[in-house]
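Tutorial, part two.
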Amino acid sequence: MHSRNVYEQYRDDLLDKLLWGEATTEIEDNEINHNGNLSNIKIFPNPVNNHITIDFYLQNAASIKINFFDNTGRVIYVEESKSFMKGENRISLKIPDLSNGIYNCVIIVDGKSTMTRRVIKL
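Running the prediction step on this input gives:
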């Protein structure tokens, strides 16, 4: 029950910021990640309802897999590996079966976990 109260407070704070123009609806990271191949990551909208988009840039062609983990570390959703070309890329996911909550979206490049971002599902 305690984690639900933390989630509710986080959600309420974020919604207040969105309503008053103090927050963005996208999470962006322009730093190159650990393996140097993935950069310019944008995950939007955030909070998300049923569709989420992930934009990113690859320095070289690579295989990308997306996992969503809940707050206990359980894998909740897997988008299987797909090959992407060097340059700007986009992944659009339908996630209507994901329950409301806070998830860690993990981007896996060529089999190595390289980037994690928090995503809120409303």
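The first strand starts at residue 27 and ends at 29. In part three we will examine how such features are distributed along the chain.
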